[in-house]
Amino acid sequence: MNDPRFPELTQRQINILKEYGTIESYDKDTRVFSLGDLQYDFFAVLDGTVSIEDPYNDNYVIVAHGKNEFSGDSGMLSNRAAQFHAVAKSGTTLLRIRPQHLREAIAKHSDISDVLLNAFLERQNTVLNEFTGGMKLIGSGNSKHTYALRDFMEKNHIWHNFLDVDVSEEARELLQNFNLSEKDLPLFIASDGAICQKTSLDQLARYAGVLMDFEDKVFDLLVIGAGPAGLAASVYAASEGLSVVTIDSNAPGGQAGKSSKIENYLGFPTGISGNDLANKAYVQAQKFGCNISIPHKAERIEHTGEHFILYATNGKAIKTKAIMAATGANYTQLPIENIEKYEGSGVYYSATGMNISACKDELVGVVGGGNSAGQAALFLAEHAKEVHVILRGGDLGAKMSDYLVQRIEAAPNIHVQLNTQVKELHGEHYLESLVLETKDGERIKKNITNLFTFIGARPCTDWLKGLVATDERGFICTGPGIAEKDLYRCDIFRKRKPQSLETSIPGFFAVGDVRKGSVKRVASAVGEGSMAVSQVHQFLVESNNARESVEA
Ligand SMILES: Cc1cc2nc3c(=O)[nH]c(=O)nc-3n(C[C@H](O)[C@H](O)[C@H](O)COP(=O)(O)OP(=O)(O)OC[C@H]3O[C@@H](n4cnc5c(N)ncnc54)[C@H](O)[C@@H]3O)c2cc1C
Questions:
Q1: Where do the domains of the chain lie, and which CATH numbers do they carry?
Q2: Which atom of ligand 1 is found nearest the CA of 252?
Q3: What's the pTM value of the predicted model, to 2 decimals?
Q4: Which of 494, 193, 121, 133 is nearest to 113 (CA)?
Q5: Of 58, 158, 245, 476, which sits with the fewest C-beta atoms within 10 Å of its C-beta?
């Protein structure tokens, strides 16, 4: 069977691609891109061979691309650095295509896009799961700061190698060699060898090429939040020719990205992990030319009447004609005084593959009675010794879907503690035990070392600072849900009412969990994000017409 990572392009596809690039011949072995190069080119082999070599492993040849095969991976669609060296062998003829021209070809020719993107995604999976290498992060397995960096790299699919200074001989040797000490941790070594001490998230993201600055351009649409709602809006808007920029403070996928398995999303009968869904949507949006920058947190927004100007962390202001809030909602913390001490070192708000090794043969707690708690409990039960589902109420089925309740009841290592709350957390550096309290006041100590909490959320709307109308909890009002008195006084709203996903300011839309009255499901968030794009088009036509009539 053909290897899906290394398909061949047909002669017709090669002929089409020739319009986007240049042909080059090599009479001796020549490096055509190197590990760490940003904006590296795509190569299709017309004759001869290009070998992809692994510099982390004595330039071991991972694959030799032959005639009609091609180099590249999904990092080419954004700004990420090359992960390997590529060498054109003597006597080889290549078609070289610049990344921006490759993106044009991908957006225009769907059969070429299918071949390239399938191979790119397969290659990314292989690299992340089977290869050791990438950027090196040295830190303590018990440090909150280091956990945040690792979490960011995992969620953003940044190929890396973590060395835990508490257990790794190599980590300690490297520190010694660089004449550094534990106070310089977390230490980050980029693929080009650059070293960064006490690494911040922004430094790491810039090296990885996922954090971008935007020149003084006015975009058609700025999407804030790359969860299901924001990614759906990005895919539809970019595929319909709008210039789109999407920012997120954390990682693509939002809450859905944290779900170990989504089983009720249409078209995936055996379920899909949130991470997988998010990664595919992230690549899909970029394939249509959407710029996605992470971590880029919206802090404040201005409305000039003509444009919106967004001020975000770590970047210049972003100017846009229309804006879409897709910032979802944030988890509620357990009301325990020292909870922050354990966040990232025993207390978590999602259960993903990264937690598996820490939970192996351990006692694990899951707090909450919704579907997210149920899914996490089932997922963790596959690895932990015991999972304790801790619930303030007295009925597991009150908020959880029946299929999850049945599976939890059937799992031999899941124990449900009804009418119970977590009262205390203990452990010197990381969570070692906790105290539960029942309705009758009985206190029980459990040696739970990993606690996953899923107890509700509040909307992420601090950055709005009152610009558009919200309800008393901060969820954004849209369409007929906006009181007449809150509507922005302007020509557009004198002629028509806000569209169903439009806020109290024309051109400002809200979709997904952040919107008042939303259903809080992946499918509805995706539906709203897609639907809102047609409303953006209507707004852009209206504001263009208004501008033209003023100019005339
Ligand atoms: C563990 C878990 C399991 C779930 N399982 C299911 C399921 O099986 N089926 C189902 O239908 N639903 C499920 N849900 C619910 C579903 O995930 C949400 O309804 C959906 O993700 C909402 O999408 P959204 O895009 O509106 O918001 P979110 O997914 O919350 O995404 C919002 C994004 O905005 C970003 N953001 C926030 N503030 C800012 C800011 N100031 N600047 C920039 N970016 C910002 C966040 O980082 C985030 O990425 C689950 C939720 C969780 C937590």
A1: 11-130 (2.60.120.10), 135-208 (3.40.30.10), 218-330+459-551 (3.50.50.60), 339-455 (3.50.50.60)
A2: 49
A3: 0.82
A4: 121
A5: 58
